[in-house]
Please model this.
Amino acid sequence: MLLAVDHTTHYVFSGPVSHGLQRLRLAPKSTAGQRVVEWSMQFEGARLQAEYDDANNNRVSLISFDPGVSQVTIRCEGLVDTNDEAGIIGKHAGFMPMWQFLEQTDLTRAGARTRALLAALPHEDSTLVKLHALSALVRERVEYASGHTDVDTTAEGALAAGRGVCQDHAHIFIGAARALGIPARYACGYLMMDDRVEQDAGHAWAEAHVESLGWVGFDVSNGISPDARYIRVATGRDYRDAAPVTGIRYGAMDEAMHVRLAVQQQRVEQ
Model:
């Protein structure tokens, strides 16, 4: 499936920005299930300073704001050829050692609510079957609903709320999998919804490492493993490792951010 992505993020600041730096994880890489045909990034009010691969093998672009700017626009456009690998990514890549994906973070740390969740998990000898059951249980316990959590909500906090979004589902799954002794990580990127071209936002899911298969994806929010409609962009121990945009700025106190994201299938000429 050939997917076209057009992703624009526009910032309007309350006043001139004297200095600003942003770290962008917005460029997918060719890996199992996807091949990047073309990808470009354009900036208005900012300029590219460096590009590198981080410890999780994510492509990172470092940009700096033009001095005194009051608006910044980041636009990504590209074509990615995808196929359905039943969520299987395969062997580990990057510099992050596997044991790091067994360590809990502030966002994934398993507490009493995660332990109660695991107590309700059916006994399964197969790790893969157990993980699919865990995904279904998280989805059952935490309703998908926006406006109840934010980027700093922990897995325990989302379980307490009983509502959350894809980021929360992923963090709960990751924390629970690690508590079972299974390496797990956060993944994010793009998902082409079947009923629309304009998407509300990017998407997040989880990946767990299964012996003989390697990394396998679990989209808890949609109850499936990622298929040809998904484009992987970044992974990490949690959202903070894989966040599409992080940075600092000096000058303006407030900002307004507007995002436009379109993902659609392209016809392949024979």
Remarks:
- The chain has five helices and 16 strands.
- The two ends are 14 Å apart (CA to CA).
- Residues 88-242 form a domain with the C8orf32 fold fold (CATH 3.10.620.30).
